[in-house]
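subagent[fold] <- orchestrator: predict structure for attached chain, return tokens only, no commentary.
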Amino acid sequence: MTNDNVINSGGVLIVGAGLAGLFTALNIKGPVTILSAASLGSGASSTWAQGGIAAALGADDSPELHAQDTEIAGAGIVDPKIARLIASEAAARIDDLARLGVPFDRDASGGYVLGREAAHGRHRIVRVTGDRAGAEIMAALIKAVKNEPRIKIVEGYVAFELAIEDGRVAGVYAHRANDKAAPVFIRADATIFALGGVGGLFEVTTNPPQARGQGLGMAARAGATIADPEFVQFHPTAINIGRDPAPLATEALRGEGAILVNDRGERFMLAIHKDAELAPRDVVARGIFREIRKGRKTFLDARTAIGPRFAEKFPTVFDYCKSADIDPRTDLIPVAPAAHYHMGGIAVDEHARTSLKGLWAIGECASTGAHGANRLASNSLLEAIVFGARAAKDVAQIARHETNAARPVTNGTLPTAVAVKTLRHTMTMNVGLERDAEGLTEALATIAQLEKANAGDADMRNMTATALMIAGAALNRHESRGGHFRSDYPQTDAQGKRTFTTLAEVRKTAAEAVGATTPAKLQAVK
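subagent[fold] -> orchestrator:
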């Protein structure tokens, strides 16, 4: 690759421009380059976040209580050290955002207005205009980043492979979003992945199209340790109006008293969990899924709890509904579960360091141990800013590394729509809300065949690598816990443990499982 195809980041490269990436860039003192596949804000899940950020700011609350709720929601495998870390640093990071211009909702005395969401024992959700937290936070951060001369923004480029030189990550290879003919090498002393989650690997998702596990896949292909990939959280109440991505009906609606009913008018969650609609997300999502599987339609009923106040309190959801000729003040809102958040990801320590020297990971593509098997509502944005600040502090300690010229790379053609559609359907049918050995084995075989058929395309290989990690880890976990439910292993083990694995180990699992079932399919996995 010629020097014309090499971009020097100037020190730190952040791949991804959501909340985690932008907040981290603003906390780094030296030169930073942000690589964004689209224009700032347009492709980030953070922009769509509605609920807010969890922080123990109330007089009746404490970081200890917040951490306890986090551990309970995480179904026994939350790292308690990390839960307490993010809870204790939450107030300081909220203040950071406020100083950057985020217009959090305030009361008459200037204090934060605190809401409550499912599985929180206290009112501790800091919001912006009810349900506009993500959009307003991103707007403030984008403005701050654009006004900071030490931050360089490179838009319209997609990272597809890590560059490894002398045993450490030296940057990434990237191509233009719609043109792979001339890939570039972006050199960096420190590379920080802030690439979002995996929702786009499923047919129904609340995530933007770019969120297809690219960061996890790149790291896994480079040999990184991956943690808890089997744990995928499905949001219970995506608005079911046939759109991709599906718009979200925030959990805060149920926090305000909205209830779930089927087309018979039955409030079905009462028979499933003592907290009914405010049960942990995985319980609510499966409750809705089972109603749909029975051939029933499911709805969110906010007519009594919110009614005429809907447009004022939840303007984003109101606009989504009105665009589909639904008036949530008087009509039921059709809902269905959708892939929403990945608790797993690239394994990191308390400084956001991965197992690969020179690579850090933050936000949804990372797995800190804070979420366990089932993320507590509104902890995701909190984790992003807490670990963003920690990563920024940690990379300040790095020494400058000289690297050799990048090797030439080829990256094939853009993934075909048919291959992506097949992958998403396979993940939904066999690696979704309810799983079993037969379906997971079938998924592993199909994913491996897709990987082999698209071997010349690194973007597709990243997607299939992530899909293999999720399905393989799900096959290896012989229990049900949080976002992972096995119909053939419905019980939860007494001693829960996190998963730490590599792509090589998952490939071995896949080969053994598929080979034992259908020998002819074994070659696709090897």
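orchestrator: received. Logging for downstream: Confidence is low (pLDDT under 50) at residues 519-526. Residues 63 and 434 are 34 Å apart (CA to CA).
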